[in-house]
Amino acid sequence: MFSKILHGQFELKTMFWKYGVWGMFLLTFITYLLRIFLVHQLKGMTLTYYYINVFSFINMNNLILFLTISYFTLFAAMVFYAVILTLGIFRSSAEYDKSTWLRQMARIFILVIIFFAFKTVL
């Protein structure tokens, strides 16, 4: 399936709404939930402060370790999916011949969606 998304083999409507909007929403939502759980366990520290000044594998709480690994794994999956999705939508929109306006809007909006998804989880 990732190969079909990467090569833009679905029509633009399916690529944009199903894989773009809903796919990024689902990944962002799950990653954001893990971020909330992680911040709650850190008792008020920001993630940046914790990972720069406090983080250590020695004598670490198992729940914080699990949430850390899950959060960074899903964040890496978001990066991977965003790259594949962007390339796929650009390729799918290149083949869309009904409206050049919709073609360009799909390209712009997917970049905006990805920007706000990463802004949400960081």
Describe, in plain words, how this protein is organized in 3D.
α2 runs parallel beside α5 (100-121). The longest helix has 33 residues, at 62-94. The chain contains five helices and no strands. By secondary structure, it is mainly α. It has one domain. It has helices at residues 2-6, 12-41, 47-54, 62-94, 100-121.
Task: Choose one word for the global shape.
Answer: elongated
* Count of separate structural domains: 1
**Could you list the spans in which at least 5 consecutive residues all have pLDDT below 50?**
none
Largest sheet: none
Number of helices: 5
- Per DSSP E runs of 2 or more residues, the count of β-strands stands at 0
- Terminal Cα span: 27 Å
Average pLDDT score: 91
Give the strand content. under 5%
Based on the model shown, name its key terms:
mainly alpha, 0% strand, 5 helices, 122 residues
Can you summarize this structure?
The chain has 122 residues and is mainly α.
List the helices and strands and how they pair.
Layout: H1 2-6, H2 12-41, H3 47-54, H4 62-94, H5 100-121
Helix pairs in contact: 2-4, 2-5, 4-5
